[in-house]
Amino acid sequence: MSEIDMNTYQQRDMEALGAHYQHHIAAMTEEGLYRKADIAAELAHRDWVIAELTAARHKLASNALMAMEGAGIPTPERGFVTEPDGLRVCIKALVADRLFVRTEYRNLSSQFEAMQARAERAEATLAKFAAIGKQIAEQDNRGTSRPIFLVQQKVTDSGYDERYTDDVMWIDDDGSVADTDEKEKLEAAFQETGDIPDCWTRTGCRDRWEYVTACFTEQACKDHIAANGHNLREPRIYADGSCRNFEFRELWDLMVGLHREAIEKQRDEPHP
């Protein structure tokens, strides 16, 4: 900077200033600023505005540096930040960081919502297990430790020597079994003559109980029979043991334990 530039006031090239000079001379003429004191006052006001803007820019730069340091963003030199270009760099970095934080927040929010949904599903599942545990704890377990309740149906097996069975069966060539009335007629004729008609086979038979399904509760067996009993022959419910069936017994204990925890929780909750 030359020595003449250090002067506050000096001769200026009015033509070089062009429209800037014309604007100010027209404004001063229109507003009646003819005295040096009036002109100096206007210039002082403009200096004050410039000083205020400069101070605001420096404060903004300090705040930007503090924000960058707080966010862990690499910071440039303070002198550079106070300049307009440096301030733009800082603001751009802060905006980018804010966008990153916003994106991370959205991601975390989505993850939290997913975790909350999983937790709600888990709570609902545990509530179902606790409800089964309540039925287990309140039902008649038929004197059996941790019983497995079975649905069974009666099945008749044929092909035995009649000497080793208590009943016989008549089967025609199509594989159909004679009903009660037809069986009585065939059996009566056989007892009289000892003859077996050509289209029939007489064989010894035995009844046995066939497994259909297994449940934790007797009520679940009843529900199964109510829904599927029309497909079963003389269904019954049987309480079987679970000795050394470690998986079943652990689940049995888990569900009963959840039921007891629910009771304790209700007991501890304050009542209105």
**Main β-sheet, spatial strand arrangement:** 2-3-1-4
The helix-and-strand class reads alpha+beta
Q: N- to C-terminal separation?
A: 83 Å
Rg, rounded, reads 49 Å
| Contiguous runs where pLDDT drops below 50 for at least 5 residues | 1-6
Report the helical percentage: 55-70%
Describe the largest sheet.
4 strands, antiparallel
* H/E topology pattern: HHHHHEEHEHEH
Principal-axis shape equals rod-shaped
Share of residues in strands: 5-15%
Count of domains? 2
- Enumerate how many helices there are, as a single number: 8
**β-strand number:** 4
User: On the 0-100 scale, what is the average pLDDT?
Assistant: 83
Q: Layout of SSEs?
A:
Layout lengths: L13 H4 L1 H13 L4 H36 L6 H5 L1 H55 L9 E13 L6 E6 L7 H14 L6 E16 L2 H11 L7 E5 L5 H23 L4
Antiparallel strand pairs: 1-3, 1-4, 2-3
Helix pairs in contact: 3-5, 5-8
3D structure, described in words:
- The protein has 272 residues and is an alpha+beta fold.
- It folds into 2 domains: 62 residues; 141 residues, no CATH class.
- It is 59% helix and 15% strand.
- A 4-stranded antiparallel β-sheet has the order 2-3-1-4.
- Helix 3 packs parallel to helix 5 and helix 5 crosses helix 8.
- The longest helix is centred in the middle third of the chain and has 55 residues.
- The radius of gyration is 49 Å and the shape is rod-shaped.
